[in-house]
Amino acid sequence: MRRRAFTLVELLVVIGIIAILIAILMPALTRARDQAVRLQCMSNLRNIMQAITMYESENKNYLPYCGWGNMPDQHTGWLYKSNGGTWIDNPPPLDFAKTGVVYSYLKTTQVFKCPLHQENRSQGPTEWITSYLMNGAVQDYGKYGPTQMTPNRVTKFRVTDVILWESGETSLMNNGPPFNDSSSFPGEWLTERHGTGSRVSGGGAIGSGGASIACFDGHVEWMSLKEYDKVVVSFDQPKNDNRFWCAPNVTDGGRGAGM
Hints:
Blueprint: H1 8-58, H2 101-106, E1 132-135, E2 162-166, E3 183-184, E4 210-215, E5 220-224, H3 225-233, H4 255-258
Parallel strand pairs: 1-3
Antiparallel strand pairs: 1-2, 2-4, 4-5
């Protein structure tokens, strides 16, 4: 019995159906992949916060040095131990994070980088080893000088105040490379790695994306760049403290000095 072959029209119809199905499924697959990476990034911050919490419990609720400016020599910060700032203009060794508080508890450096982070070395040397920066509010944004500051106790902050956020790509307020050390002013940029198809390396506030943030009570959130811009850098708002500008010993949470 002779078998009937597909006609050209039938093959084109099948190919067309497959193309339509791919077009329907691709956005869903892209969203699922982005969600998976976002969850991994948030998991990194949860692990970092777990280490910081353990450090606090062993040090009378004092937070680790955030690395504001240059820590006193040989003091250990959350990300690394100070070496007098000799690497500040050059990339530090990739295992430099092994000298910090977080590594001493977790024994892994993988938690310091978001899976989507592509190094842009013009943003500063510590971008080689981390995607996340600590809020300089931990040390009052240098109010008492970079080498005299003692980190605040965690009890000085509200539970929803932000201690860590995912930075990168650019400096939104043109304050210089955000990765010049391991801490930052809030206005020095929240990345847009997650949730946008319009992400451009080196671009500014361009899309609907956002980043992972961690709060002093240890919980982690995802924040859109639009929400961040409204809370942190909008000049339409009064200069008062909020969950980012939260330095406990500085007027207006440090916002006046940082803007």
